[in-house]
From TrEMBL, chain A:
It is a multi-pass membrane protein. Belongs to the binding-protein-dependent transport system permease family. LivHM subfamily. It holds the Pfam family BPD_transp_2. It comes from Teichococcus vastitatis. This is Branched-chain amino acid ABC transporter permease. Its main location: membrane. The keyword Transmembrane helix applies. CDD domains: TM_PBP1_LivH_like. It is found in: Cell membrane. The chain crosses the membrane at residues 12-35, 65-83, 95-116, 136-160, 189-212, 218-235, 266-286. Keywords: Amino-acid transport, Cell membrane, Membrane, Transmembrane, Transmembrane helix, Transport.
Length: 291, 234
């Protein structure tokens, strides 16, 4: 029983991290209608940035969070403005998806060129210390991920529901032409949306870096899982992504122990295929809500 | 206030408008009537920037607006209440109205505008917290009109406000349009309900196959033989 509770705790903490990554992915899909295959590489970029900042400035990785989030927000903005937007004007939307695949490959190779294939471990002072909760133990870094996950989802929810910009983002997703008639600059909305999605990944990168070493392909593992989360939660649904992230975190943790560590991805992707077969709209599917 | 000068526009290679001239003066109620497919909706979409004119000039208060994006046109004080209502279905009616006041100019006076608009639409006030998508067609049309007014436009354009509504609701919609006209907003109205429309319009244009066939005062067009035969079935 103790083991089970410990595994559940681990799973929920991991779910917090998946939530941050997935929320950005699902936001970009829900609003821009774009599957961003370069999402993992944005995580990778953020992790290298964290490594550079930590080793060069000698500060704790967490201190870099505002800076990395801001840089990734701007990077996201620029990707939308200079890569995806011209494609939207030129051709049909599928070209944009291929562009994100191309961007992903380009970023991986850029990282290989600059950093080589070595692993870059960000110094992790205190992040790996554990806190005792009764008989259970949680790493500081895990707890921070979980708290940040909840905070990010809550903040995004409030932003979307309460602010003018958030409302305009939702309006654009629900009826693009009508939003334009209200005076919404749809191109700007898309830029901001991609920026926010990238900024979420920036935060995730800062939290992951002290626990997991950076490498050119580090994004793949996390973001493949995030795709499962997004599909499970329902593509485009923020709270779906949160619930889905917790579920996948639990599945990851429990199946890794009770089945086999090597097979946990088999279980996760088995679940992925099962969702697609049985309930392709996911738990909180967006099937509705679009034009 | 608004002038269309030899405006051509269309979709892809298909030209819909073959050089039309339309003028709307401040304080007027102007209507464009015509059959299905004559280009009425395209005219409004071109003015608001959703369709780019391929030739000709559109000026609003002396400024060329033919190359502007919709949000830039809206910011200059032109609002289109689109055909088919086009509400945000998964937002509350209140949030739909808030979206109507998105431009900085409208946002600054939103609370006051909301009160004024809701006085005009008491039924909408009762539905403020409901999802717009859950309303009936007539209620949705009222919300769409209210949302357009939230922008405090200088020029308010209606595209087929009575389309797809039951006759009694159509009558209510026209009552509302007349009330709005009385508030002094400049109105450009496109409708298939030619009789009722010409009755409230100062001037009207008859659009046939993408060209202006005739233009006159609303009353004169109502008396015109061609209009009576072609559009009023008299």
């Amino acid at each position: 029983m103790d083991t089970f509770v410990q595994l559940v705790l681990n799973g929920l903490m991991l779910g917090g991290l998946f939530a941050i990554i997935s929320v950005g992915l699902t936001l970009i899909f829900g609003i821009i209608r774009l599957v961003n295959f370069a999402h993992g590489e944005l995580l990778m970029v953020g992790m290298y940035l964290t490594w550079i900042g930590t080793t060069q400035l000698g500060v704790h990785p967490y201190v870099l969070a505002p800076a990395v989030v801001l840089v990734l927000f701007v990077v996201g903005l620029l990707i939308q403005r200079f890569i995806l937007q011209p494609l939207l004007e030129a051709r049909d939307a599928h070209v944009q998806i291929f562009a994100t695949v191309g961007l992903s490959t380009a970023l991986i190779n850029l990282a290989l060129l600059v950093f080589g294939a070595d692993l870059y471990a960000t110094p992790s002072s205190g992040v790996r210390d554990s806190i005792a909760i009764g008989p259970y133990r949680i790493l500081v870094g895990q707890l921070v991920m979980f708290v940040c996950g909840i905070a990010v989802v809550a903040a995004l929810h409030l932003f979307m529901e309460r602010s003018y910009l958030g409302r305009a983002i939702r309006a654009t997703a629900q009826h693009r032409a009508a939003a334009q008639l209200m005076g919404v600059d749809v191109k700007r909305i898309y830029m901001v949306t991609f920026g926010i999605g990238a900024a979420c990944v920036g935060l995730a990168a800062v939290l992951v870096a002290p626990i997991y070493p950076a490498s050119p392909t580090v994004g793949t593992y996390f973001v493949l899982t995030a795709f499962v989360v997004v599909v499970l939660g329902g593509m485009g649904s923020l709270h779906g992504a949160f619930i889905g992230a917790l579920i996948i975190g639990l599945v990851d943790s429990l199946s890794g122990f009770y089945i086999a560590p090597d097979l946990k991805e088999v279980v996760i992707f088995g679940l992925f295929i099962g969702i697609l077969l049985l309930r392709p709209t996911g738990l909180f599917g967006l099937g509705r809500g679009s034009e | 206030m608004l002038t269309l000068h030899d405006v051509q526009a269309g979709y892809g290679r298909t030209t819909i408008l073959h050089g039309i001239n339309v003028e709307v003066r401040a304080g007027e109620v102007v209507t464009v009537v015509g059959a299905n497919g004559a280009g009425k909706t395209t005219t409004l979409r071109t003015i608001v920037g959703l369709v780019r004119p391929t030739a000709g000039r559109i000026t609003f208060e002396g400024e060329e607006i033919g190359r502007l994006s919709p949000h830039e046109v809206v910011a200059r004080g032109i609002t289109l209440i689109p055909e088919g209502r086009q509400l945000f279905p998964f937002m509350s009616v209140r949030d739909n109205l808030r979206m109507g006041a998105y431009t900085p100019h409208a946002r600054a006076r939103m609370a006051q505008t909301l009160d004024e608009v809701l006085d005009l639409f008491p039924r909408v006030r009762e539905k403020l917290e409901q999802h717009a998508g859950s309303l009936s067609g007539g209620e949705q049309q009222m919300v769409a009109i209210a949302r357009g007014m939230m922008a405090r436009p200088k020029l308010l354009m209606f595209d087929e406000p009575s389309l797809g509504l039951a006759p009694i609701i159509v009558s209510q919609v026209f009552d509302v349009v007349e009330q709005i006209v009385r508030t002094g907003v400049t109105v450009l109205l496109v409708e298939q309900n030619v009789f009722r429309t010409l009755s409230i319009a100062d001037r009207g244009y008859v659009l046939e196959n993408g060209a202006i066939a005739m233009s006159d005062s609303g009353a004169a067009l109502l008396r015109d033989d061609h209009v009576r035969r072609a559009y009023l079935g008299i």
